[in-house]
Amino acid sequence: MFALTPYYASREVYEKQPGGEMKASWRTCRVIGVKDEDGEPTYVVEYVEGGITYLATESYLKRPEPGNPL
């Protein structure tokens, strides 16, 4: 893993709807590192869900536009 200066981004999360469908939404996370998995970059992220902080890996993130604090 390569550590880097943390920055904020958005990760895609799927939530089950009452009708059984899955709906995608974007949630804020903080990128704290990058690692190589099978030749593809994977981002190490930190996010808060229900007051608990989690670490996870994400293969796709959206970085906010310059000057956008989320």
Ordered list of secondary-structure elements with their pairings:
Blueprint: E1 2-16, E2 22-37, E3 40-49, E4 52-58, E5 61-62
Antiparallel strand pairs: 1-2, 1-5, 2-3, 3-4
Describe the structure.
- The chain has a five-stranded antiparallel β-sheet, with no helix packed on it.
- The protein has strands at 2-16, 22-37, 40-49, 52-58, 61-62.
- 0% of the residues lie in helices and 71% in strands.
- The model has no long low-confidence stretch (mean pLDDT 89).
- It is built from no helices and five strands.
- It is mainly beta.
- The chain is globular, with a radius of gyration of 13 Å.
- Strand 2 (22-37) and strand 3 form a beta hairpin.
Distance between the termini: 26 Å
Order of helices and strands: EEEEE
Question: Strand content of the residues, in percent?
Answer: over 45%
Strand order in space, largest sheet: 4-3-2-1-5
Helix content: under 10%
